[in-house]
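Hello Y.,

Per our agreement to keep a running log of every chain we model this quarter, I'm adding this entry. I've kept the format consistent with earlier entries: sequence first, then predicted structure.
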Amino acid sequence: MHRYATIGFLIATLVVTGLSGVARAQRAPEGQLVLTFNVALLPTYCDPAEAAQPIAAASCLYALHDALIKPLPGNLMAPALAESWTESPDGLVYDFTLRPGVTFHNGAPFTAEDVQFSFRRYKGVAAKQLHERVQTVEVIDTHHVRFVLHAPWPDFLTVYAGLGSGAGWVVPKAYVERVGDDGFQKHPIGLGPYRFVRLDPGLGLVLEAHERYWRRTPAIQRLILKSVPEPATRLAMLKTGELDIAGLPPDEAAAVQHDPSLRLVQAQTAITSWLEFPAQWQPTSPWHDRRVRLAANLAIDKQALSTAMGLGLDRPTGSIIPRAFAFALPLEPFPYDPVQAKRLLAEAGYPQGFDAGDLTPFPPTRQVAEAVSSYLGAVGIRTQLRTPELAAFFAAWREKKLTGLILGDSAFLGNAASRFEVYVLRTGLYAYGSYPDLDALFQHQAVERDRTTREQVLHQMQALMHERVMHAPLLERVALYGVGPRVAEPAVGLIPLYPLAAPYEEMRLK
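Predicted structure for the entry above:
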């Protein structure tokens, strides 16, 4: 959903201030690394059950917790706490064999009961669909767990295991039952490469290396997550050596290119930005007219947006679904044609344009929103920019309280169906409406196990969405990072389509 400074997601800034000379070998961790969020770090980010925005929380999830299956370098569906799994011929049963000898940070053994408990406790973005479609989670024995579905669901693993939901991250049953949800958020216990030390409200989260992490002992001893909202401050700290890796918006990233002591690295992401028309479902609204929605698309110069907002690295797109996703239909963006945009508005009955009300952006994309508002205003679509706090933005979007226009932004990993489920389907968490034929086609593909047939159906849905101009797609985004001279491996771009630096156990200093 959701969900990035001006690169459109909750991007982290990584700061390394520790000792140099840390080797990749299994030696004791050394040094310190600080991840600096550009927004307030919420305690709920440490709790997988509360991962309403799993990408926003991913920096905490990858540090503190682990999942049965998760995105890792080179593989978006890599075995983690599950060594292996099988799917029954009828698509109804998934059996997982769990990794033996794994312990939580408090020394308690990881078992199938923890998996069952974590699934039942989950109440994040995909809770409704998961809990409705999974009939039962059975503990076969200590290291075997079985998920039984009500009906075949080809995307079960995509939703459960990936960062599209955050549902697959596992917490310790006995500990949570003892301290309660509030107690868990105050002192979370997990299975990840770092363990909780303390949370300093308004300052940061302090973590230390978990030397018994099954995958690899982290090279860095201490991890700190804290908030430094100002990009200019992050750049200044990078230049003075206070930071070693910093997520930066384009203006500051351009400055890195001109500093010989620094280097700029990028990660292609699954982030797409688009303009949402929530009032298109209201017959009395100007946005109900396809010509008005098309005019808004033609009014925006996407390539100029890319040049201004992403050093020209962001790719203009004609879809809210990333081209790299499975089942994505590549769609070219509508051209920049303000003359035709004005003509369409006049044909629709708005020769002088109209007042479109608020334009509410995902907060870190305010600079993009300002440019979009300017383009719309040039053809007569007048808007007022309104930027709420991050949590308030998502709450209002989910509760369908945002009016006017929404500058949407999503980094959820998954496939084309995953994006439809959340943003297009009538029952979608962030959808204000849909079309009956799209809903019917979605239900068709949701149980279709033949991949070719399923792809055809999903392509048909995307073509219809484009033809009806349901959105104004803008850009597929890149994440930009400045890297200082002491960093050997920043772990940026190691995980396909993932916008943050991870996994942490891969990071190392020279």
